[in-house]
Design a protein that fits this description.
The complex is a heterodimer of chains A (222) and B (350). Chain A is 58% helix and 11% strand. Chain A is α/β, with parallel strands linked by helices. In chain B, 48% of the residues lie in helices and 11% in strands. In chain B, strand 6, helix 11 and strand 7 form a beta-alpha-beta unit. The chains are: A alpha/beta (222), B alpha/beta (350). The structure holds cobalamin (B12).
Chain lengths: 222, 350
């Protein structure tokens, strides 16, 4: 199997919620693709993240269901520990990120973002739910996050991101990207701009890429 | 007061035509501004949504201001989770939400449907009764409920429900069976109190949310039994998630009305259901927040052009309820534009 074949087969196993099959494929990688699997982070970067991203794009096109995106993320979050449990010294260190549901009690979106980030080799902090903007801003600073991800399902919660961004802009801390997602953002693509979010995603699978590019551009900014 | 303007048909006559397959005088519409009623009455949202008298006054006031062709006794979905032991969290600037999910795997085996006189259910039945008494014969009352396959999202949490479906399909099936009994009893109580149709919210029927095979195996049979048991017209809404891919199955299962998302192509939807279903939809309330009067006019014209020429449609927000953040004046403009541009038969130039 070429690495591409493995990727396709891995994606198919995830869409079928076939955890054992997905794990078996990852284990075949060291032999079929040389050193690729030597590092957990490389495994994440070359196989897990691309597979989840492809599943995310298929969700955006309407070709796979949210239930499949959820199960794929859930399967992947455990795989990395199982297959490459050793701490990684060679890989680039992952940024410090936190995920929260701001004044919202709907937790699947947050759960999915956490799964995808874990599967991608991040160690995201679960900042919980139901918090107000000021409290979440304070927690994000305490934890010295490099990026904050917020999931919202209700419009009133999504609109609170505006307060969050305003507080973070005024508290004297370093620029902190705020990345958002959730049904209201998907249904009204103007909303993310309205609340001054740094970036938004249609699918949880986009989270790792959005984090990396938001941090890159905030470091690049004067 | 748009609702007091004289017209050829009363709302009840118009809806009867729409459901019966005859062309009405204009497109029927139902801009459900249930939450806005609190502001119109000057009462806190929690009171409006907890008291029969306020809920009824609010629904009637909105109907009068917007000239809606329906009124509903729906208050909030979280009440149905409350009937199973959940809590309701109220806010003053948006709809209430269900709190921590009340059920778990361990509680399923002994689970029974809640009694129909549970306060959360009785409230909705009493609102139905009081509304029906006030509008008798003039405006149809739509009852509502969360359907058997989607209710578990509030009972177990969304991830809890997806996990159960994949890991314990027999328990999942049992929960759907309990929910089906509950839905039948709740629908019958609303119908007996004077509702003329039931809006069933089944967003997990959408292929956007759950893989189609699972809904076909578990959700669809329950809906079919639901329809057969209640013996009244019912709608299936996927709460703004795309419905086209399952619409024909839903019609086949007995749904007379199908709630379309703004992501659904209405012309294709009509074709997919061979014109057999009444289409509800498909204004996107979240986007309506920013509409100017000019936008309203343009959007309403575009919508009317997409709707079936037969008039077999009821214009609604695609999720069912207009978000509170949409100014009430915008809704007044939408209602006026619908009356202006929605006359039937439709002129060739739209
Ligand atoms: C299923 C559904 C229901 C079900 C279950 C709800 C639940 N989860 O508890 C039922 C029928 C019970 C229901 C009820 C209600 N609902 Co509802 N519902 C939906 C629906 C169809 C899907 C919601 C859902 O849970 N999706 C699952 C989550 C995980 O999806 P998601 O947030 O989109 O996440 C994806 C992406 O957005 C992304 N993502 C999510 N977070 C993040 C974060 C980051 C950083 C990134 C990058 C990506 C990302 O990843 C996911 C995919 O990979 C939506 C409309 C829609 N088309 O999506 C309305 C919707 C959420 N409902 C809405 C409302 C208002 C309600 C009610 C309040 C109605 C009422 N008056 O009672 C109640 C509240 C119920 C409750 N729980 O308390 C509104 C909310 C917006 C608003 N108007 O305020 C929506 C958006 C409908 C609409 N068009 O307006 N609902």
């Amino acid at each position: 199997m070429t690495p591409d074949d493995v990727l396709m087969a891995f994606e198919a196993a995830l869409l079928d919620a076939d955890r054992a099959g997905a794990a078996r494929l990852l284990r075949t990688l060291p032999t079929s693709a040389g050193q690729v699997a030597a590092s957990g982070a490389l495994l994440a970067d070359r196989v897990i993240v691309p597979a989840l991203e492809r599943i995310g794009s298929a969700f955006e096109r309407g070709d796979v269901a949210l239930s499949q995106v959820y199960l794929a993320g859930r399967i992947c979050e455990g795989l990395l520990d199982e297959i490459a449990p050793a701490p990684d010294v060679t890989a680039t260190p992952r940024p410090r990120v936190g995920v929260a549901a701001l004044e919202d009690h709907h937790l699947l979106g947050k759960r999915m973002v956490l799964s995808v980030l874990r599967a991608a080799g991040f160690a995201p902090l679960d900042l919980g739910h139901g918090m107000r903007a000021a409290e979440l801003a304070r927690r994000a600073r305490e934890e010295q996050l490099d990026a904050l991800l917020v999931s919202a399902l209700m419009l009133r919660s999504a609109l609170r991101v505006k307060d969050l961004v305003a507080i973070l802009a005024k508290d004297g801390g370093p620029a902190l990207p705020v990345i958002v997602g959730g049904a209201p953002f998907r249904l009204d693509p103007a909303l993310a701009g309205e609340v001054a979010a740094t970036a938004w995603g249609r699918s949880a699978s986009e989270a790792p890429r959005l984090v990396m590019s938001a941090i890159e551009s905030s470091r690049g900014a004067p | 007061m748009i609702g007091r303007e004289p017209e050829a048909l009363t709302p009840a006559q118009r809806i009867e035509r729409v459901l019966g397959g005859q062309r009405p005088d204009r497109f029927a519409y139902f801009l459900n501004a249930g939450l806005h009623a609190a502001g119109l009455l000057g009462v806190p949202l929690e009171d409006l949504l907890s008291r029969v008298d306020l809920a009824v006054e609010g629904a009637l006031l909105v109907q009068e201001r917007l000239g809606n062709d329906l009124v509903t006794s729906f208050l909030h979905a979280a009440g149905e989770a409350q009937a199973f032991g959940g809590e309701v969290l109220f806010f003053d600037d948006g709809p209430p939400n269900a709190g921590t999910p009340p059920l778990g795997l361990a509680s399923l085996a002994s689970l029974r449907p809640p009694p129909i006189d549970h306060p959360a259910l009785a409230l909705r039945v009493e609102v139905t009764r009081a509304l029906a008494a006030r509008v008798a014969g003039r405006i149809p009352v739509a009852g509502a409920l969360v359907a058997p396959f989607s209710l578990p999202v509030m009972q177990l949490g969304f991830s809890g429900w997806l996990d159960l479906l994949h890991e314990a399909p027999r328990e999942a099936e049992h929960l759907i069976a309990v929910n089906l009994d509950h839905c039948i009893a709740f629908a019958r109580a609303q119908l007996a109190a004077g509702a003329s149709a039931i809006l069933a919210f089944e967003p997990l029927a959408s292929t956007q949310l759950v893989a189609p095979r699972i809904f076909h195996d578990l959700g669809l049979p329950a809906l079919r039994r639901f329809g057969a048991a209640i013996g009244a017209p019912f709608a299936v809404s996927t709460a703004s998630a795309p419905i086209a891919a399952v619409a024909n199955d839903l019609v086949d299962a007995g749904a007379l009305m199908i709630g379309a998302s703004d992501q659904d192509d209405l012309v294709a939807l009509e074709a997919a259901t061979s014109g057999k279903a009444v289409i509800l939809g498909n204004l996107n309330g979240l986007r309506m927040r920013a509409w100017t009067p000019g936008d309203v006019d343009r959007e309403v014209r575009a919508l009317v052009a997409r709707l079936p020429a037969s008039g077999r449609a009821v214009v609604t927000e695609h999720h069912g309820e207009v978000p509170l953040a949409v100014p009430f004046d915008t809704l007044v403009h939408v209602a006026q534009a619908l009356r202006r541009h929605g006359r039937l038969p439709r002129r060739a130039d739209g």
